[in-house]
Amino acid sequence: MKGWRASRLAARMLAAGGLCCVLAGCFSVPRETRETVRTFVLTLDAQSNGADAPPAKPGAGLLVVNVPQAQPGFESPNMAYVQRPYEIGYYAAHQWAEAPSRMLQPLLVRTLERTGVWRAVMAMPTSVRGDVRLDLDQVVLVQEFLQRPSRVLVSLRAQLIAMPSYQVVGIRRFEMSEPAPTDDAYGGAVAANRALQILLKDLGDWAAGCVNARPAGAC
Fold it and tell me: CA–CA separation, 85 vs 83, rounded Å?
C-alpha cells in the first residue's frame, strides 16, 4: 500500500513539474528551426552601375521619371510566381527588398543618365519641372513555372510626355523573359536581374530615339 501511494505521489510531482516547465516555456520551438526569410534586390550590373554618365549635348532638356505603377497583384515585395494561367502565388520565405516597381525607378534613372541625351534625369517626387516626363505603368515581374526551366517575365508600359503641353511623344510596351538557372526563388532573382538589364537598355534607347527623332517613327 505504501509503495502504491509513493508511486501516485511521484506521478503527481512529475505532472506538476511538467506543467511548470510548459508554463516557463521549456518546450517552446527553438528559433533556429524557424525558416529564415531571404531578401533579394534588383540592381544594375557592375559595369553599368560604375560607369559615369557622358556629358549632355548643348540644349539638352530635363527628363523627369515618374513613380512606376505596378499591375494589380504585383504591388508588394512578395516574390510572385505562376504555376498555371490566371493564378498568382507568392513565395512564403523569400521576398524582394521593396516592391519591384519601386526598385525600378532609380535603376531607370541611372540607365537614362548614361545615354547623354538629357541635361539631367530626375526621379519623382521632385519640385523640378522637366521638359519631358516618363511614365511607367503595368509593371509585372513574375517567375513562370509553365515550362521547364522556369522563366522570369518582366514587362511594363512606358509613355513619354512633353511638358508643359502634356503632349504624348511616344508609347511603347516592353517585355523581356529570361530562363532561371534554378527552379527556385534564387534562380528567379538571378533571371529577373538579367531580364531587367536588357529591358532597361531597350527602354533607354527608345526614349533617346523619341527625343532625337532618329530614326523617324522610333516612337
Answer: 7
- Give, in order, the Cα–Cα distances in Å from 29 to each of 14, 17, 19, 36, 200: 22, 19, 16, 14, 46
Band (53; pLDDT cuts 50, 70, 90): low
Distance (Å, rounded) from C-alpha 144 to C-alpha 177?
A: 10
Distance, in Å, from the CA atom of 84 to the CA atom of 86, rounded to the nearest integer, reads 7
Q: How far apart are the first and last CA of the chain?
A: 99
Euclidean distance between CA atoms 106 and 178, whole angstroms: 22
Q: Which CA distances in Å does 110 have to 121, 132, 187?
A: 8, 16, 25
- The pTM for the full model equals 0.78
- pLDDT tens sequence across 167-203: 999 999 999 999 999 999 999 999 999 999 999 999 9
